[in-house]
Design goal:
Largest sheet: 7 strands, antiparallel
Shape: elongated
Strand content: over 45%
Distance between the termini: 114 Å
Helix content: under 10%
CATH architecture of the largest domain: Sandwich
Radius of gyration: 36 Å
CATH topology of the largest domain: Jelly Rolls
Structural class: mainly beta
Amino acid sequence: MKIFFTILVSLLFFTNSFAQSTCANAPTISSGNCINNQTFPGSVNMSGLCVGGSNPALYIKFVAGACSQFTITPSGSFGSIGSQILTSACAGVSGSLQCHDNVVSGVPFMADCHDVNGNYLLTSGTTYILRLWGSVGTSSFNICYSANVLEESSNECSGALSLGNVLTQYFNGGDCSFTGSGVDATTSDPAPSGLCAGSLENTQWIKFMPQSGVSQFQILGTNINCSGGGCGFQFGIFSGSCSSLVSEGCYGNKVCSGGQSVSGPTNTSATDGFSIAWSNATTTGFTATITKTGGGSFNGTEVFYLVMDGNSDADCQYSLQGVNLQALPIELISFTAENSGQMNTIKWTCATEINNQYFVVERSLDAVNWFELSNVNGVGNSTTSTNYTYLDFSFQRNTTNYYRLKQVDFNGDFKYFSIIFVNNNQSIKNVKKVFSLIGVEVDKSTKGFLIYQYSDDTYKKVYIE
């Protein structure tokens, strides 16, 4: 009797576990609710359904809404979980409508109601089955469901996220709304033909504005990881406003099935004042460089958008960082100084200037300690050469006068340029002895830093070329 009871209990336990793992006995989850402490109690043949072989699986029935969304949260370590949407027939567990190969812990994934052309994939009010497969290690997990989820605001240009100078992870999953269908009946996106992929699948818009005064702006993309569905992506860059976008170039089309590949990036020429070049383009990252053409710089009002357009049903994670590349404030062609009798004449020429407010001419007698002589106004911004002159009437006689140039931007940033000098020493005829800096007497023809003893027994440190 005891043996029979043990066998009966074991049979009931096995039957309950097996029933839970079959399509016909799937529990139903209602919108706005969760089913907690779920596990994968058994293994089934998954041949022809997203993956092959025998995998632990769990079935859950749900009624589709305008945009159906699930979230899985494990109680412990998170393994690998995939999902399928099946018809409710359960005959042979067939009729797979959608696959997600890699569900992300705590990140919602969609049961899409429309395809890329706006045709119905799932019919609102109809019962379907969510099939989960994989493992969560030794932990159980909770799964929550919402039948009517609003479209993510970043799916459209008007709700673009921001791009900062710190590496930030973004997630673009599911394609619940393509052209304004679903819960959100309107769209601010351009026509599908205007995007790199020629479609409005699960897009994500990100807005950025280069800093004033820089000539280039870079976007660094890393850690791109897409899974599920078509498992591909396209990145495009646009300038202008959401109502009037100008394409600045495209990159992408990573294909996860049958090997990974990257289509040739599209670089644009300077037809609208900007050019773009894609570099380091791989299946997991890229560098996009936007350049203000004509030697100019951004004025801080230009608006750009990066749009990530995932293939149908693809879930993508990626990290982005914006980098302002500061152009040199001036391009200095020459900087000279010479004695002109009663004055030292300092001249310099700039080929270009960016955000240049003024110059400071400084003088020193030892190339160590400096004091300001005068400020000379710059021209601000210029792509043509400009000549500058400063006359120093107060230079020190019988010594070497050193000069350097300090350039100051409108925002207070500054930069020093090379040191030059004028030898204003007395005639060599008045020099009695010449010493090195360590006090050793040397020949009068010696070059470099020296100490001159004149006929009146005065001493001067000089530099002789």
